[in-house]
Amino acid sequence: MAVEVLLPKLGLTMQEGTIDEWLVPTGAAVSEGDALLRLATDKVDVDVEAEAGGMFHPMVPAGTTLPVGALIGWLLAEGEQPSDLAGSPMPAESGATGTAAPATTADASSGALSLNGSATPNGSGGRLLASPNARRVAAEAVVDITVVHGTGPGGRIVSEDVEDFLAAAAASPAAPTAPAPSVLPDDSVVPVSPLVRRLAKERGIDLSEVTGTGLGGRVRRSDLDAVPTATEPAPAAAAVRRSAAPQPGDVLPLTGMRGTIARRMHASLQEMAQLTHGYEVRMDAVVSLRAQLKEEWADSDLPVPSLNDFLLKAAALALREHPLLNATVREDGIHLLGDIHLGFAVAVPGGLMVPVIEDAVLMPLPEIARRSRTLAEAAREGRISPAQLEGATFAVTSLGGYGVDFFTPVINPGNVAILGVGRLRDGVEWVDDRPLRTQVLTLSLTFDHRAVDGAPAAEYLRTVGELLRKPLRLLV
Q1: Residues 210 and 327 in one domain
Q2: Which of 15, 59, 205, 240 could connect to 200 by a Cys-Cys bridge, CB 3.0–4.6 Å?
Q3: Do 420 and 408 contact (CB within 8 A), yes or no?
Q4: Same domain assignment for residues 75 and 110
Q5: What is the pLDDT of residue 183?
Q6: Out of 186, 206, 339, 453, which one is annotated catalytic?
C-alpha cells in the first residue's frame, strides 16, 4: 500500500521548509526510521526519517521550498509503480543498479577521475543537474562530475553519487595507482551526508573507523555522537574551518538561517518602537559565590553556574515582579504571559540560535546551568530540535565574552524585551571619599515602547541588579 511522504511540521511556528537534499536515491528500498531527506527550516536543518518502509519515489527536486503538509514523495509496496498514483513523480534514472562497477581512468590533462566513455548531460537542453554538495565533493576529490551517474530526482547528481563513483574507482582494477590521498579522501568509501562529513572533520573523527547504522551502512550523526573525541579539534579540522571562513569578494546568500535572521530582525525593527536602557550592576558577590561553589561542589555532580547562568536566573526572577516585560503585543492588546520561558542566544556557524529554558523561574540555579549547557552544546553541534527553539517569552543575549561593554540587542518578534549582557570589568565605587575597586558589568535592556515605558523598564533593571548583589537568593 502506498504511503504519502509529507513535508513535516517540526515546530509550532514552522510554515514552510526547503528540501536541501534527498538522502536516498529514487527507487531505493527504505525501512522505517531511515533518513529520507535533509530539510532546511527557518530555524534549523534536520534529517527527516521515513515513517514507514517501502520503495521511495520523490515528487519534487532537491532545492524546492514547500508549505508544511505538502506531498513530497511516496513509499511504495513491492510491485507498485509511481505511475499508478495521482500526480507526476520525479522520473527515476534507469540503468546502473546491480551492474558491475565501471572501469575508471585518470584524465591526463586535468588529473580528474572520469569514466571510460563519453559523458551525457542529465538535464533538459544539455544542462547538468547536480546539487551544490555534489559539486563540492567532486571538486575536493578531483572528479569530473559530468561523468558521474546521477540517482537523484530526474537523474540529479547528489553527493552520494560522487562518493559511490569514488568507491567504484578505488575498487576497480583499472583505478590509477597514484597514492590515495592525492585523488581520493580517506573516508570516501563511507556513505555519509555532507553534514555528517563536516561534523566528522570538525571533531577529528576518521569516518572509515565508524560503523554506520543507516541504510546501506550509511553513517548518521548519532553514530558520530557515539564516538569519543578529543577536547581539541584535530589540526585538519581546524584547517577545514579556516578555509570555509568568508573571504573578501565572497557573496553570502540571504538564505537558510542567515536569511531568516535578516527577515526577522528587519521585521522586528519595523514593527516595534524599540528603545534601549543601559544599567551598570555590581558583580562582586556573584564572583565570590561562584568561586565558593567551585570549591564546595568540586566532588559533586552539580554543575558550577557560569556568570551568564546567574544572569539568566536573575532575569527570570525579576520578570515575576515586573510582568509587563514578560508579554506579547497582539491586535487586541498587550497580553501578559503567565509562564516565564527564557531564551538565550547561542552563536553558531552562520548565525545564532535562541534555545529556550522552559519555566526558568521555577528552576534552581544548578538546573538552569545544566539545561543551558545541554541546549547550547546541542545548538552548536546541530543536534537541537525546532521545539527547543520555540516559546521564549523573554530573551537574554551576551557579548561579554567578545569584550563588548554595551550594545543594543534587537527584540525577538513576539516578545516585548530582550536583555543584553556586557563584559565583566573593573569599576570604582567611592566609600567615605575613598575609592573601592569593584567588579561590574553593563546590562542593555531593549524594550518595545508600545508595551513598556521607560520607568518600568528601569525598575526591572534595578531589580535584576539587586538580585545580583545578593546572589544566594538565586540558588533555589
Answers
A1: no
A2: 205
A3: yes
A4: no
A5: 33
A6: 453
